[in-house]
Amino acid sequence: MKSDQIETFFATLQAANPLPVTELEYTSVFELLTAVLLSAQATDVGVNKATRRLFPVANTPQKILALGQPTLERYLQTIGLYRSKARHLMQTCQILVDRHNAQVPRDREALEALPGVGRKTANVVLNVAFGEPTMAVDTHIFRLGNRTGLAPGKTPLEVELKLLKRIPQHYLRDAHHWLILHGRYVCQARKPQCWHCSVANCCDFKPKTSAP
After folding, report:
1. Is the confidence at residue 212, as pLDDT, over 90?
2. Under 8 Å between Cβ of 61 and 103
3. Identified catalytic residue from 98, 138, 191, 208
4. What mean pLDDT, rounded, does the chain reach?
5. What is the pLDDT of residue 108?
6. Does the annotation count 174 as an active-site position?
7. Is 138 a known active-site residue?
């Protein structure tokens, strides 16, 4: 994908969705961190179902700790890997209380030091909560980076660094939302819906057929 195609690619996605947002439901930075931590190997729909039950009862580090891990697990049991996620969330809450005055830090190193929080989760929090131009590479973005020719790479980090370099600065803050949503609903893994893709003309991928 050439530079002029990249500009057209993101201008088109922006025109269709000027103010993209995450599909995870949250009302505070801590709720966002919790939801993203829970979303590993789970769908946003599944996470939202669990947090709709959890957050009205416990939506601060102190309240999560007060629940205790067995009770927390019952709230999360519909999510994959819920036991390990509950353990990581409890540990994260304790660190937030002990080291950060129960606040989510605006610092990559501090975020990645939290149990269950890797680079992708930190990138989401830094972008969504604090407006930083980070690129959280999930399976959708990794696929799009390679399939479209936008940022080919063998690892999520390689794709991330290429995206940060190739995407024009004025699109960076919202770019990961556009890419995730495009990958989730149009450029799907098994059957990319190229026949109604608004950015197909910018893409390096050539489908075998133009219709389902």
Report:
1. no
2. no
3. 138
4. 94
5. 94
6. no
7. yes
